[in-house]
Amino acid sequence: MNQVALSLLLTRSSCGLLQAPAPSGEALEHILQAGLRAPDHGHLQPFQFLLAEGEGLNRLGALLAESAKQDGAAEEAIERATQMPLRAPLVITVAARVQPHNKVPAFEQHLSAGCAVMAMQMAAQAQGFGGIWRSGPLMYSRKLHELLRLNEQDQIVGFLYLGTPATSLRIPSFVNSAEFVRWI
Question: Of 46, 7, 41, 14, which is closest to residue 160 (Cα–Cα)?
Fold first, then answer.
């Protein structure tokens, strides 16, 4: 049994307080490669990763704000959208790049892209970085999809915020799995 891998899975936690440095170079490539290894029925590779760091975080914030504005959000929500990406030194917007397929419905392709987010977060944590998978109403905004030049059938599945933890990670306590399991 690989104790290191098991320990990583059993101590996975999100970290919302992130600071520089963000993963880069080989560490970032490992993160992206982990995402590309997500379960993928039909070998469709239904993922697209849109990376923002540095000035790109401001551009992403402007796109989020424009999307919120076009969707009729309140001024407070528009201003908040501008600041959202600035909570981490690297934000990866993950979209399911849905392809028509007679055996692999869009839902399975969304799940595959979601697994990519989880794999990337785990790869970041394995290398000493922190991360948090964020969602929210903007991830469903068709305006944002247009602004990011995603296709009509594509779907954002989350925003993965990555960086160096600014606080110690809280390792979740173990939960009794019996509360979530029912044998058939």
Answer: 14
What tens digit of pLDDT does each residue of 100-157 get? Answer: 999 999 999 999 999 999 999 999 999 999 999 999 999 999 999 999 999 999 999 9
In this structure, what token pair is assigned to residue 149?
């030049």
Encode pLDDT of 27-79 as tens digits: 999 999 999 999 998 999 999 999 999 999 999 999 999 999 999 999 999 99
